[in-house]
Amino acid sequence: MRFTAVARVTDWSWTALAFHDSLGFGMLPMQQLVLEDTICNEIRQHRQSVIFGHASADAVYSTHRVPGLYGFESYLSIPIITPEGAFFGTLCALDREPKVFSADFILQVESEARWIGTQVGGLLGKPDQR
To answer: In what residue span(s) does the GAF domain sit (predicted)?
Structure first.
């Protein structure tokens, strides 16, 4: 995947905290995207991973506006949840080329998202201290 990011996703914003951009999107540290222009906004609402390997051939994502907006075919986004159960954001990756995601790869990314959630939870403290 030629674009990967850890994003902070709130009720009002999507912010790139860390990323690798070899697609040339021109992402900058702490750059924000319009929340409604992201699939991460949907993940924030339902807290489920979204994974597809070929948007233009996918029953749901072939007509979804976000892949067309950014020009990507393959996409993987895993929610980052703190140990206290708070939604923090997403670990996401995308590419302009279709990809086949192995079960092992998906498990690895899910594990990384859990680890990030644990680290973030430790930094943020208890929910009532945020």
So the answer is: 36-118
